[in-house]
Design goal:
It contains 4 helices and no strands.
Length: 123
């Protein structure tokens, strides 16, 4: 039995995706390539981070500390490999990206995620 409840972070990627889709929908009015690039950049951040969160909070309790540490390392390694692979696939498959929009969306998803996690943990 654990005394510290697991944080409910399952909704954070969904909120991130909803905000990303809203912003990309608005950007579509200006330029479709920019909107698609921003969407792909945001997804490249959201999916690996969701994987890490799932792995990091898979186990709970002091008796499972070895499993927790192993799972966090596995989650972080998977996140790095997944992010690098997604970027490699994106760059290899299609060359007409708006790279500024792609990287900006990728980077802006990080503070959004932190904000959403803080909001989720307060409730």
């Amino acid at each position: 039995m654990t005394t510290i409840p697991r944080p409910s972070l399952k909704t954070v990627p969904f909120y991130q995706m909803a905000i990303l889709l809203l912003v990309c929908g608005l950007v579509t009015i200006l330029d479709m390539t920019t909107a698609c690039s921003a969407l792909v950049g945001g997804v490249i951040q959201i999916v690996p981070q969701a994987w890490f969160s799932r792995q990091a909070f898979k186990y709970a309790g002091s008796r499972q500390v070895d499993l927790i540490v192993r799972s966090i390392y596995r989650g972080e390694a998977g996140k790095v490999v997944m992010t690098a692979t997604l970027f490699a696939v994106v760059f290899a498959l299609y060359k007409q990206w708006n790279y500024i929009a792609l990287f900006t969306a990728f980077v802006l998803m990080i503070p959004l995620q932190i904000f959403l996690i803080r909001k989720t943990l307060k409730h």
